[in-house]
Amino acid sequence: MTPFLQACINGLLTGALYALIGMGLALIFGVMRIVNFAHGAFLMAGMYVTFLLFDKFRINPYLGFLPAGILLFAFGYLVYRLLIQPVRDKSDFMQILMTTGISLILVSGAQLMFGADYRQTSIELVTSVLRFGPFTINAAALLSFVIAAFFIVGLQLFVTRTRTGEALRAIAQNREVAPLMGINVTRIQGLSFALGIAFAGIAGGLLLPALYLFPTVGEDYTLKAFVIVVLGGMGSIEGAAAGGLALGVAESITSLYLGNQWALAIDFVLFLLMLSLKPSGIFGRQRA
Amino acid sequence: MNSLRGWRLWTVLGFLVASAGLPALTPNDYLLQVLFRIALFAALGLAWNLVGGYAGQLSLGHVAYFGVGAYGLALFTAHSVPKWISVFLAASVAALFAAVIGSIVFRLRGPYFTLSTIAFAEVLRLTATNLNITGGAIGLTTPALFTGSSFWTLFYLSAVILAFITFLVNYWVSRSRFGYYLLAIREDEDTASAVGIDTAGYKLRALLISAFVTALGGALYASAFQFIVPDNVFTIDISVQIAIITMLGGAGTLPGPVLGSVLLLGASEMFKSQFKESHLLIYGLLIVVVVLFLPEGIVGGFEQRLRNRKKTPVDAAKALALGGD
């Protein structure tokens, strides 16, 4: 039983970061109906920014994620105005192509700037372990869990409790009527896109200490983000948070019983099962 | 769609003869290999065109069939099936995969559809990486279909033949009732289904043909490079490349995929020497440019202009009218 529970704990710790990634994607999808195929590429960009801050200025990644998030917010807004806004009323086909193109540019841009080498940040926290009875918890994972939880709750409060959040939900519910209520759709959509990207950047910063960094590191996370969002019900932000945690646990249990190499496969199996059996998501209503 | 008569027929035949004659002018193996890939991706683009162009279903999982073709060839020949029979067996297996995958993914629309095609391709990649019979991450060796000094010439010519046959299939589809049904599905699936078109069935048929050709392409590729690993023949990059080639040239047009392959692979080959691993940058930039300024692709934009001048009704209206009877 202990290994199983230990796997669940590890899964929840990873799952909090997945939740961050998924919530960003859900926010963008909910408000714009655009599936961001570049989500993992933005996450990778967040990792590189955090890495550079660490490498050049010795800023600890657990602080560096914050400027990375802010920078990605600005970058996300710029990308929205230049590339996403022109296609927001085009077909899914064009939108998917556009975000795929952005992803290719970011990944090959990173390759051009930093080369394909694997990089690593070595900080002590990653190797220190806390003991709770029979269970062990990695200190770095715990710290990133706490930070992630803070942002998850923060985003949820922002969306449900603020005036801007209300405008955001109004657009998610009805794109046509929202502007009639005096909501500036372009501004809110830009904000949502930028926020979604910032969350990907923050998650990237928090993932950095535990991973090797290379230009295509984000690819798996784009796919994971889709799985999370589908699990939670497309466009539902709180659903994505739950979906992230669920995916973390599912992966962790899969690695325990079948081995690490199948952990990624479980993502897609879950994804396809979900889409064919209950496309509205485990936690989703019919329409998010 | 225009019929292949007069100058169009002569252009196609001229292009075919010129393509077939190219190896005589380039005895250089490297150039022949580049030409092989251009012809191969023209064939793959034309195959994708049936699903992504005519039926308007943005599949980013076509590498699944490409990979099944490649692995099928390796596995069948390993069990001492003759090489050429293995190629077609592998393609049939890919069509079988397409039947299963299609019956699931075609129930989904828009982003859900695209995502699920990616997911299936990724499941296959991971399976090939983790199973022993597929050689795991180390991969398998594949037999060369041709040997000797004219190795690349023969591979290039088979790719040209594959592309030409797929071109004819596209031509047939574009002029058949089947093709009009696909166009109707692309323009408005609900209306198409409301007027009695079996949308799921026609989409699936398009995918079966498409998957069969894509797998032939995969087998040819595997055989030319004689070695396959999952990250090489099941990579999403190939899916994206096929889609972009077709979109750039013009999805749903006949010459589009061929033009797209020549332009994109040519450009990427030139960039490769300068930017090494970053040559995908040109793909990204081209996608963005195409989406922003050329949403119909090069050929599509050109045809649109012609149509506007002649003021004939658009194909989609014709398709819907035909679907209704």
Structural topology:
The complex is a heterodimer of chains A (288) and B (325).
Chain A: H1 2-32, H2 39-57, H3 61-84, H4 92-114, E1 129-132, E2 135-138, H5 139-161, H6 163-173, H7 185-207, H8 219-232, H9 237-258, H10 263-277
Antiparallel strand pairs in A: 1-2
Chain B: H1 6-25, H2 29-54, H3 63-78, H4 83-105, H5 110-130, E1 140-141, H6 151-175, H7 177-187, H8 189-194, H9 199-225, E2 227-228, H10 230-233, H11 236-249, H12 256-275, H13 280-293, H14 297-310, H15 315-324
Antiparallel strand pairs in B: 1-2
Helix pairs in contact in B: 1-6, 2-6, 2-7, 2-9, 2-11, 2-12, 3-4, 3-5, 3-9, 4-9, 6-7, 6-9, 7-9, 7-15, 11-12, 11-13, 11-14
Task: Give a written overview of the molecule.
The radius of gyration of chain A is 18 Å and the shape is globular. Chain A has a two-stranded antiparallel sheet. Chain A has helices at residues 2-32, 39-57, 61-84, 92-114, 139-161, 163-173, 185-207, 219-232, 237-258, 263-277, and strands at residues 129-132, 135-138. The longest helix of chain A has 31 residues, at 2-32. With 288 residues, chain A is mostly helical. Chain A is built from 10 helices and 2 strands. Chain A has a single domain, classed as ABC transporter involved in vitamin B12 uptake, BtuC. Chain B has a two-stranded antiparallel ribbon. With 325 residues, chain B is mainly α. Chain B has helices at residues 6-25, 29-54, 63-78, 83-105, 110-130, 151-175, 177-187, 189-194, 199-225, 230-233, 236-249, 256-275, 280-293, 297-310, 315-324; strands spanning 140-141, 227-228. The chains are: A mainly alpha (288), B mainly alpha (325).
